[in-house]
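Lab notebook, bench 4. The sequencing result for the construct came back, and we need a structural model before the next group meeting so we can plan mutations. Quick request posted to the team channel:

Model the 3D structure of this chain.
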Amino acid sequence: MSARIREAIAALDHDTAALRLAPPAQVRARGETLRRRRAAGGVAAATVLAVAGVFAAVSPTAERGTNPPPPAIGASAAVTAAVEVDCGSHVLRQSERLPDTAIACFLDAVGARRPARLAETWPTIEGDPIHTVYVAEADGAVQVTIDSRQDRFGVPRITRRTCTGPVVEHRRIGFTQCSSPEAA
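Done. Here's the predicted structure in token form:
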């Protein structure tokens, strides 16, 4: 071994001698504690959201019978009040797509020229939620409202487009023609 290599190793030993590393068992225990806290926090958050969802679903029907839910993301009250078919609100995880039944429900309503509503929330690559609401009108046009205000790495805004000719593309709803996006 050359003298320079020996000097470098001696210098490295001197530089790292002051470091005190925790034993592997202690590092694993700390990681396990953090994992449990995250899991408990996730369960608590899911419980709170579920309870809030139940109250949100129950309170409007208790007061007004079977009226549709309140207007979503920038939807006008007239359009929401006219919705005949509710195809659901779907919260999707990474790489999940809308259920085939929801897509069929919405496309059937558009084809029959019946007012309908479909909502989806899907995560960005970083996990930020993007909310999209499709509202079909009696004339066959579809108002597509996208809320990206919670996207930390994108442009936070609400946009609306008027689209026609809905099609299914990889278990997602697409359109043959859409207007330019407008701020909602």
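DSSP finds four helices and seven strands in the chain.
Will bring this to the meeting.
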